Amino acid sequence: MLSFHVRADDAALNWRRTATGFARGSSRIDPYRHAALDEVIAVDGDRLLVCVREKNDGRTGPGSRPAAAAALSSIGAEGFDRLVGQCRDWPLQWHLLIVAGTSVRIEAGLWGTAPVFLVAGAADGAAAAQLDGDWDADRLMPGLKRASLDHGRAALWIAEYDLPYARQTLFAGLTLLTERGVAQWAPVPQGGHRLEIAYPEPWPRPVAGTLREGADPIAAWKRILRTSMRRWTRQAGDTLGVELSGGLDSALVAAMAARDADRPLPSYGLAVTGGADAVADQRARRVDLVASLGLSDIEIPMADFLPLGPGSKRVDGTASALPWDEGYYEAMDRLLECAYANGTRVMLTGFGGDELSMLRAVERQALGLEPMDDEPLSPPGGPAFLTAAASATLAEPGDLPPRAAMSGSSVAVAALSAARYLRHGIWPVHPLCTPELVHFCARLPAPLRAGRTTQRALLTRLGVSSVVTDPAYGDDLSPALVRSMRFAARPLLDRLFAAPLLAELGVVDGDCLRRDYAEWCGSEASEGSERFYATAILELCLARMV
User: Fold this and answer.
1) Please, what sign has the CA dihedral across residues 172, 176, 178, 181?
2) Residue 132 gets which letter from DSSP?
3) Which SUPFAM superfamilies does the protein's record reference (predicted)?
């Protein structure tokens, strides 16, 4: 939501408005400007407040100013502090930045969407301290070196195709402001500046309860979701669109949004590859939903946009190669291009639905269900092509943030997927991550969460057929990854693995990597594509660094 470059030696200058935001000397602050967002700007002496937040049902809040408002004038300490407090209490996503002299403070709201990545360093060969922040980490990468790769996080990324949502990223010096986090960049007594990021207190964990007599949990589910969604859908109007995979989550969001729409709601989906029966099943579900909900649908065939395949913008250098960007970036990039060209500016997603029905281990046992299958993608030491030193890091504990208002995987997806939408001028909205809904579902008795009982019942009540509510197959994008890693992208991977930069850095054994990849390509195994993709995209990222 924010992009900025602040130099300490500009502190004596006054802030002024620019076409994209604010500037003083070579320092700048550029809010991400979008019809779904609102700005709060305030000045008190040498303090500047810039807050970017989601509009709430199309309404702005206290302190909102048009982007083209006139000169910056001081409102006094009391008014300034009051506005800061009002920004912190905003119910939807927000980020605020306060510059005070040579210090900078950045705070984040609880939704996790469009977080700020940070790089602190010295400008002009240590002539002046500077802090850079951006919602798009790709724009900060030129300031980082290959040697900044964190070997432990790189090993985990390769072994488990996983990048923990935390203040430390894959690269030392590139940090992430997590939900409700606070970053403080300030001078220190020994000289220079230090950047510190503080995690928040854990969000309270609700426990399952019992239903009151006569309660209708399905109606309550519907009411909470609809009330929450209207905070975005009514103000988005004709610019609203919805992602539609054909699964339970996207179907539920689409069904709720379509009931409130006064025109055919635009929907966008990826047509999966893989077995004929699974492909046909997804196709039938999407066709059923488009017809029953009266959607105006655009479908992108994944087979034409395979990960790192021929024509990939990530390979030719015209798109980000950040490892944590969407693995199926090529297909999603095409989907978002079509959505923007179709007039969509606010996109509803189905992220977070699986997590709403999660059962604790004791609940699964009480219901007679098998334990969750948490089988890792790799053996305990990671794939054989990791070096011994890299493998040893997998046993080290991570620096993870405390519990958020939504599940850890949901907030991570909301955060790390945001840039791909914003690059296309689209604001993403994740209704199933609404804290009120997350809390309500966690309070439901376990039998109502098991097997996603409430979601299926609500979809049925909304008129969705059993073709969708009880599918023969679940959505699986992985056949596209297997197909690309084994065939379409193999010339690229052979080239990247011939002299891997990760081998120079001591993370992988090049000979072992080439042998394992060749053996996998010659087999019919579907498992293993993730580790070779993870290695390849990390190689592409490192190749753009020095």
Assistant:
1) positive
2) E
3) Adenine nucleotide alpha hydrolases-like
